[in-house]
Amino acid sequence: MRRSIGFLGSLLFACVVHAGSGTLRVGSQVLVVGDSATRVTELLGKPSYRTHAKADSGGRSGGKKGKGRKSSSSGGEQWQYRQGNRIVTIVVADGRVASIRDDGR
């Protein structure tokens, strides 16, 4: 009996960890971190709202940056989509999906 309770607890923990793993189901398709910005547009269409994401604060400080080069800590853009009662935020950096946040689960 105790083993089955431990197994169910482990299974529940695995499900919770997987829920924030950076995937989004769109109909029968799945969007994952690393997909292209074009794939996002194909699956979700034009975003309702688009803004610049905050830059990563954990970047290097005090170093010289090359001329005309972007900082490696640039945050990219946040694309927001409304799907029913939820808001899905996709962070796109360098033409790729950097993170997926679903604010309505």
UniProtKB/TrEMBL annotation:
Keywords from the UniProt entry: Signal
Domain of life: Bacteria
Signal peptide: 1-19
Pfam families: DUF2845
UniProt key word Signal: yes
Region (Disordered): 44-81
Name of the protein described by the UniProt record: DUF2845 domain-containing protein
Organism: Dyella japonica
